[in-house]
Amino acid sequence: MAEQIKFGTDGWRGAIADDYTFENVRRCAQGFANYFAGRGGAPNGIVVGFDKRFASEYFAAAAAEVLAANGIKVYLCHMDPDGATPTPVISYTVVALKADGAVNITASHNPPTDNGFKVRGNTGGAIDPEGLKQIEAGIPPPEDVKQMPMEQALSQGLVRRINPAPQYIEHLKYLIDLAPIRNAGLHVAVDAMWGNGAGWFPNLIGGGATRITEIHNVRNPIFPEMKRPEPIQPNVDKLLETVVRIQADAGVITDGDADRVGFADENGRFVNQLEVYGLLALYLLEVRGWRGPIVKTLSTTSMLNKLARRYNVPIYETGVGFKYVAPKMVETNAMIGGEESGGFAFRGHVPERDGILAGLFLLDMMVKTGKKPSQLLAWLFELVGPHYYDRIDISYDESRRPEFIAKVKKAQPDQIAGLKVERIDATDGFKFDLGDNGWMLIRFSGTEPIIRVYTETTHQDKVESILRDGIAILGLPWPVHEK
After folding, report:
1. N or C: which end of the chain has fewer CB within 10 A?
2. Which is it for strands 11-15 and 114-120: parallel, antiparallel or unpaired?
């Protein structure tokens, strides 16, 4: 009997050569083809792209062969020098070509042992949870997978290799004027995390007075000097050291597939992803003068609620993942949407995370205001007050999931770290609302066997105590082993 493949937040991820095999990638591609067959087909074609992980280009070719065998035209992204394409570029290409969707071979920020199969709809954004369930349900056993050799698919015009970069770059110029950044005389350290963001910032804003020093900008699927290509500490520590060593004005980090962003100030301090979301919202509202709804996941910053009140714009909260954020952005014509992991999307673009554009916006904020990153943070905190954030990731045996969920459900604390619990939100995980004092969230990852305990609070001295109480609710000892 064929192994069941479960789609999580974005699609499916697995361990290479264990469950992530060519056979299972082909089954997923057939499931995607079946999904479109049930919706009247995919007459406008499917974009297929891939990242720099081990064998990603071959997995992408396997998916393209299956789609072609189902009579679906495939636009296979293949950029120089190694073909890998950032996730936001793949997403924009769906819109530019008016395609019906996309398959992206990437495990994003997962460990080097993993790869993934992401799917996108005709907006370039994530497919909603019901659509993901339909794709998953349509994944057949191996004997029901159609397949066409690549050479045959190419000769019949069912697969066409494309370079999607030029169209994406032209669209970026519509969203942001790059010349002022290029001519600002900044020195920017960029960490591509051995991934798809390599070369983009030098190409977009290099060549003028601004200098770019790029690290981890070649292909290396084992991701040296970091646990995984996720733009949080300690993975970004090398970039922070680089900022100090070269006396850079700022540091920008893109994750493995370049859909998430990290940021560092001029002193080599990591600007956490909740602070980045606050800065990006402030940039659009105050510097660019935009107005419109803000979409946030329940795991990200309450600074956004305060900015929304200050600028009189609506705010919507969703479950974790762009499968919730993207549909809500489309529904509300949101100005910005984002999540705690450092992924942000913007109106006028695609309802999908774009680490490249987010990084450019942060640099543009520096140029337009004349402020250093530390001064931008000080400005944000003047408006909304200081907020302090931390997160602990705990690896666990999947078989214990029901046990841990039962423990959290049973817990009904009146206080967390001495702060009153005003309500518990079980929309996605278990969020303990501490009112103006902040929140604590216990959530089970949708892509890995990891429990995440997060907090954001206005009390710097309460951060560890809140996390301790979250770990205690799970019945685990402190200190806890972090992944």
Report:
1. N
2. antiparallel
Paired tokens of 131: 């659509």
Alpha-carbon Rg for the chain, nearest whole angstrom, is 22
Least Cα distance to 249 among 172, 173, 179, 181 occurs for 181
C-beta of residue 355 within 8 angstroms of C-beta of residue 258: yes
Return the sign of the alpha-carbon dihedral for residues 271, 275, 276, 282: negative
State the CB neighbour count (10 A cutoff) for residue 98.
9
Q: What does the DSSP assignment read for 391-404?
A: EEEEE--GGGHHHH
| Domains defined along the chain, listed by start | 11-168 (3.40.120.10), 176-384 (3.40.120.10), 388-473 (3.30.310.50)
**Phi and psi angles of residue 480, each rounded to the nearest 5 degrees, phi first:** -100, 150
Q: How far is CA 395 from CA 111, 213, 267, 453, 456, in A?
A: 13, 35, 32, 12, 22
- Is the peptide bond prior to 413 cis by the omega test (within 30 degrees of 0)? no
Minimal CA–CA distance to 350: which of 334, 370, 361? Answer: 334
Are the C-beta atoms of residues 106 and 53 closer than 8 Å to each other?
yes
Beta strand 101-105 with 46-50 is: parallel
pLDDT tens, position by position, 145-163: 999 999 999 999 999 999 9
Half-sphere exposure of 33 (CA within 13 A, CB side): 24
Candidates 313, 279, 191; CA nearest to 241 is 191
Q: In what order do the strands lie in the sheet with 250-254?
A: 211-215, 187-191, 250-254, 261-264, 270-271
pLDDT over 70 percentage in the chain: 99
Per residue in 37-91, pLDDT tens? Answer: 999 999 999 999 999 999 999 999 999 999 999 999 999 998 766 789 999 999 9
276 closest CA partner among 290, 265, 292: 265
Burial of 449 (0-12, 13-18, 19+ CB in 10 A): middle
For the segment 403-438, what is each residue's pLDDT rounded down to a tens digit? 999 999 999 999 999 999 999 999 889 999 999 999
Q: How far is C-alpha 113 from the geometric centre of its chain's CA atoms?
A: 19
Tokens of 186: 């900044």
Do the beta carbons of residue 212 and residue 150 sit within 8 Å?
Answer: no
Identify whether the C-beta of residue 129 lies closer than 8 Å to the C-beta of residue 137. no
How far, in Å, CA of 113 to CA of 168, rounded? 30
Alpha carbons 445 and 449: distance in angstroms, whole number: 7
